Amino acid sequence: MRPEVLLTDPVVRDAAIYALVDQIPAGKVMTYGDVADYLGLSTPRIVGATLARAEVEVPWHRVVPATGRPARHLAQAQLALLVAEGVRCRDGRVELALARATAAELP
Whole-angstrom Cα distance, residue 65 to residue 95? Predict the structure, then answer.
């Protein structure tokens, strides 16, 4: 369900990002753009920056770039966490066609 709150307050916006990411089911992923679109944010970079500085535990590994290839400095850990959850990966990329969560799959 899309939020009806305007996410201009950074504290509210960050909380909304954390809440959405926390709802991505194990074995599924969303792209930074998917999260931004779902929340009505202007750019996926906001999502990335928020997750990079997260001070709360969220399943950050379930959010990937639109290419499906994690950032180099995170790739090994992120792919290992995703594979452990049953996400199919190939050649260092998440198979988005199989693993991408849809709005209907979110609680």
Answer: 12
Q: Please, what sign has the CA dihedral across residues 97, 44, 86, 90?
A: positive
Domains and CATH numbers, the chain: 10-105 (1.10.10.10)
Contacts of 65 (CB under 8 A, 6+ apart): 31, 32, 71
Contact 57, 18 (CB under 8 A): no
**Cα–Cα separations (whole angstroms), residue 3 to 13, 44, 51, 82:** 10, 17, 19, 27
Q: What's the CA gap between 34 and 101, in Å, rounded? A: 9
The whole-model pTM stands at: 0.91
Reported as a single tens digit per residue, the pLDDT across 79-101 is 999 999 999 999 999 999 999 99
